[in-house]
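batch job 7 of whatever, protein = Alpha-1,2-fucosyltransferase
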Amino acid sequence: MIAFSKLGTLGRLGNQLFQYAFLRTTARRLGVPFYCPPWQGDEIFELNDASERATTCEPMKHRFVEPYANTGFNPHALQIVDETEMQGYFQTPKYFDERSVKQWFRFKPEPVAAVAQKYASLDFANSVGLHLRLGDFVTTFANFFYVATPDYYRKAVERVPHKQNVIVFSDDIAGARAILKDLGRPLVFIEDNAAHEDLYLQTLCRDFICSPSTYSWWGAWLNAYPDKTIIAPAEGLFRPGSPLNNKEFWPPEWPKIKALRGLRDHHFIFTREKKLVHKLRRAIEITKGSFDRK
């Protein structure tokens, strides 16, 4: 048996899909059962894993922790042996078989029935999906992750053939509206759905434009159209120069477009500017406080 006891606690849905795919693929390679606790995917997908998945975890003799700096392909991960507890993100399709994983992640009808009905009149087959991950990419994790520029989205829309509708998905719709205000095309903003419902709708879009996000990745990758066009940021998952890297995140066949402003968005420059701005704001607050006390 192998185990991923923290599956469901390390990241949100996109991360968990990578973790489950790696865990189950590794168990099949070794010919052993796998254990993971209940997670979101149990309710969303036709996993059909009862014959392979243990309901309790036996004591493990070994432990594999993915290197902090590389969430992509690590050859040592392919040397995991039986009775290993694993931990990491495993964010690359190089770890698993496409046909098997797409079978595991088929949506159950019930969890997506309501959202399918809600958007039944929208022609997804002739539309492009567009995802903007904002939220903590703008705040907490901005040193490592990034938000693609409006120019990236403009160029990407020009590259895709199916754009009767530009269907926008985001964790911050107001922020997405501001970034896309000059896109030059009518936009359909998808709002007020659960994460798995938006993921399902993303897979229905004929073409797709990704942000640097695992959620984007799965929305595009689970798309079943054989003639789909998927556009991705050329910089990869992390901000250039970041201590984190993943060179195998995007499938090589997806066209890439530069999504940043060169050196200005490099990790070192960006971080330095943030520190200077913080010091300046702090100095202004201290000075203002001094005047207020007079």
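notes: The mean pLDDT is 90.
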